[in-house]
């Protein structure tokens, strides 16, 4: 079985290189907007979308002198893949002043909206080599992959370190409250609250957890570190189309259920008002060194306007 996975990863590698050579040749840089790519080697579950939301808020409220004469408040757009409608809805709910676009072709869409925005943040797009002239921020949870055995389906990565130029910024991530990683962590991810839509806190119980995200194991760890011991856990595929059906069936038991903000964003109005559904809200805490680096990075971006 291990050999078969390695062989499949080798075939994936060949397809990856051919696809990039034929269809993802470097394109033209944007003429107005500053393009920022938030990416990762991993196929999913790294926290790219929450960080995109944090970064957009940082640009609006904290980064120095990011406005232009024509737009005192920076005009920001975030591009999501059209398959990630749940992520787009979550970003729309969290960022009322930011424009969210879903697209199958980030390169084309970025050029179409170039003149309308000062900053275009790509939620992923790390593998799209047409996106030239971008400032890339890479999110890492472990060392960069270097061997074919690291690639899917043998491993959990989409590409190797040698496939990419050095990004402008590499952020090493960790789970908040983990003393082993706290000293070397640039971004800490943790649960800041678990409450229903009314704002009621989770009762002292062992709630079910239903999740359709890329890294459910990290979510469970976050919930436990928040002080909640989950009962039954249902791990659904990322962007699972049947998520709400599974959730509705579980709600009939009359017990509290914990889900993520991304999963909550896909629910119908009736379910969003259900008091048994509790949302685990995730927060991101950058280190002081990370904030200083971001400050310097955006200063360089502004110098190139």
Structure write-up:
This protein is of the alpha/beta class and 305 residues long. Helix content is 32%, strand content 21%. It contains nine helices and eleven strands. The chain has helices at 2-23, 48-61, 85-94, 106-112, 216-226, 243-251, 261-265, 269-272, 288-303, and strands spanning 34-39, 76-81, 99-103, 119-123, 135-140, 169-175, 187-195, 208-211, 233-235, 257-260, 277-286. An eleven-stranded mixed sheet has the order 3-2-4-1-5-6-7-11-10-8-9, sandwiched between helices.
Please summarize the sheet with the most strands: 11 strands, mixed
In angstroms, what separates the terminal alpha carbons?
Answer: 52 Å
Low-confidence stretches: none
> How much beta, percentage-wise?
15-25%
Order of helices and strands: HEHEHEHEEEEEHEHEHHEH
Q: Please give the number of β-strands.
A: 11
Specify the structural class: alpha/beta
Helical run tally:
9
Q: Strands of the largest sheet, in order across it?
A: 3-2-4-1-5-6-7-11-10-8-9
Helix residue percentage: 25-40%
Shape: globular
Overall pLDDT level: 91
**What is the C-alpha radius of gyration, as a whole number of Å?**
20 Å
Supply database-style keywords.
305 residues; alpha/beta; globular
Brief account:
The chain has helices at 2-23, 48-61, 85-94, 106-112, 216-226, 243-251, 261-265, 269-272, 288-303; strands at residues 34-39, 76-81, 99-103, 119-123, 135-140, 169-175, 187-195, 208-211, 233-235, 257-260, 277-286. By secondary structure, it is α/β, with parallel strands linked by helices.
């Amino acid at each position: 079985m291990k050999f078969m996975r390695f062989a499949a990863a080798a075939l994936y590698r060949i397809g990856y290189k051919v696809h990039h050579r034929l269809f993802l040749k470097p394109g033209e840089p944007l003429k107005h907007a500053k393009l920022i790519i938030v990416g990762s080697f991993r196929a999913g579950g790294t926290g790219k979308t929450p960080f995109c939301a944090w970064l957009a808020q940082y640009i609006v409220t904290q980064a120095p002198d990011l406005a232009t004469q024509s737009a005192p408040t920076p005009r920001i757009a975030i591009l999501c893949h059209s398959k990630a409608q749940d992520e787009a809805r979550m970003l729309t709910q969290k960022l009322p002043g930011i424009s969210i676009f879903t697209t199958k072709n980030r390169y084309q869409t970025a050029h179409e909206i170039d003149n309308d925005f000062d900053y275009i943040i790509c939620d992923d797009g790390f593998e799209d080599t047409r996106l030239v002239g971008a400032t890339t921020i890479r999110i890492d949870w472990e060392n960069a992959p270097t061997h074919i055995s690291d690639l899917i389906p043998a491993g959990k990565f989409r590409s190797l370190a040698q496939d990419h130029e050095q990004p402008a910024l590499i952020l090493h991530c960790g789970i908040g409250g983990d003393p082993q990683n706290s000293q070397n962590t640039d971004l800490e991810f943790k649960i800041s609250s678990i409450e229903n839509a009314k704002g009621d806190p989770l009762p002292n119980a062992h709630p079910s957890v239903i999740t359709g995200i890329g890294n459910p194991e990290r979510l469970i760890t976050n919930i436990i570190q928040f002080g909640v011991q989950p009962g039954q856990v249902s791990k659904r595929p990322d962007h699972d189309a049947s998520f709400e059906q599974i959730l509705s069936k579980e709600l009939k038991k009359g017990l509290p259920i914990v889900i993520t903000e991304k999963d909550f964003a896909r629910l119908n109005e009736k379910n969003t008002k259900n008091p048994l559904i509790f949302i685990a809200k995730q927060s991101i805490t950058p280190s002081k060194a990370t904030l200083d680096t971001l400050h310097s990075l955006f200063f360089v971006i502004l110098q190139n306007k």
